[in-house]
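Reagents: none. Just compute today. OGFR factor.
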Amino acid sequence: FPFRLFPLREHGMNWRARPLTCQEIQAFRKSKEVMDRFLRAYKLMLGFYGIHLVNEETGEVERANNWRERFENLNRFSHNNLRITRILKCLGEMGYEDYQVHLVKFFLTETLVEETLPNVKRSALDYFLFTVRSKEKRRELVHYAWQHFRPQSSFVWGPRDKLQKYR
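Predicted 3D structure written out:
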């Protein structure tokens, strides 16, 4: 079977790659070697996107030194957004839910606050946000996005009345 770097329990673009089973996910999560490789692959992909994993315990990320040139690539080629969505989903499968939160918040900050990734904004809002497994953390991120989205009246990713009362 073809090897997948960030395997999921769903079909992707490669029709020959079969989805993971729950048993396989559990076996992966129990294997230190597999999880070490997974983390190495994650760091490699972050580097490709111009992002650096600051803290392996929390999943906190920041811009890497090469961020300007890598963000140009992210803005130019939208197929990267599919890969990022896949990575985010796989983080959830592998038990790295906190990593999901930090990476999504990073993209929300870069697209909505810093405005460095205008061509990633729709994917961050439509897809990245909704890969976050924790309902509570996802709500926090939707609220964060709403706070920074302009114009706020055009924000469609959460009910305005609940967003205004949030916290």
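The chain has a mean pLDDT of 92.
Action item: order primers for follow-up constructs.
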